[in-house]
# Entry
Amino acid sequence: MPLTLGEAMSRKLVEVRETGNVNTLEIESFGSQRVFVQAGDVVKGGRQDRTLMVSLVLPPKSGRISIASFCVEHGRWSGRATEDPTKFSTSAAAVPSREMKLAMQAPKPSAPANRGMEVASRQQEVWDRVQKAQDRLSAATGGEVRSVASSTSLQLALENEKLAKLRTGYVESLKAAGENGDDIVGYVFAVNGKINSGEVYESNGLFRKMWPKLLDASATEAISHRNEAVEKVVSVKAVQAFLDAGNAGKETVAPLNFGVNRVTRESDHAWQFETSLAEGWVHRSYLSK
# Structure
């Protein structure tokens, strides 16, 4: 079973470094275990906090490779306080917004023909979604979540004390649900009666490692919508239909590094993004349209 990016960075077994390019970082594994990197993982530090654009499985001692990223801290381009501007210190959070994930990952039928223009367009959309998430969270918490240290940083907003206190209530209520059986490999998340997204893994072990970060992100997203109307409770049948739609969508395959494939499936109501190796899939992420 692979380490998660958060585990590997905390143990100094992976470094994520600046390249001088907003939308490209460098990642390197030094350990003897594979490392799973999930699209939407946020890395803190460098010249700007980033979120990683694609999922990867890094082999042991990978050497230096490039990984696509989006900035989630518009404006800063220097070291922050005592942080090292050349590399990133932690990966404790994941993107807490379905809209932001769609901006990052979903193919666009009207995307610019020029790859650089498309990335720039997506980057602007990610910045817009960060601002919208901060606005919603500020309204939901009754106070400003933006940090005086960097008002555009998504990561620092997620560390806001009032938000963290609110999030604790959600997490304490739901955390055990993901830990009560050794056959649980994923979850589907709904907000106010609307299916939002789902994450499914190759094993219970990998799911359990990812669960705390996923639950924090889901709780944060739920808090950002707490002032909106609540619809009917989502049924098990509706959840199964959502997963089935993602599994059956029209498929495209893009090869990444180290024999990893990114498989995208699109249906009328859902996206599925799969990370797979020759021996089978590792992770499937589902997003409602």
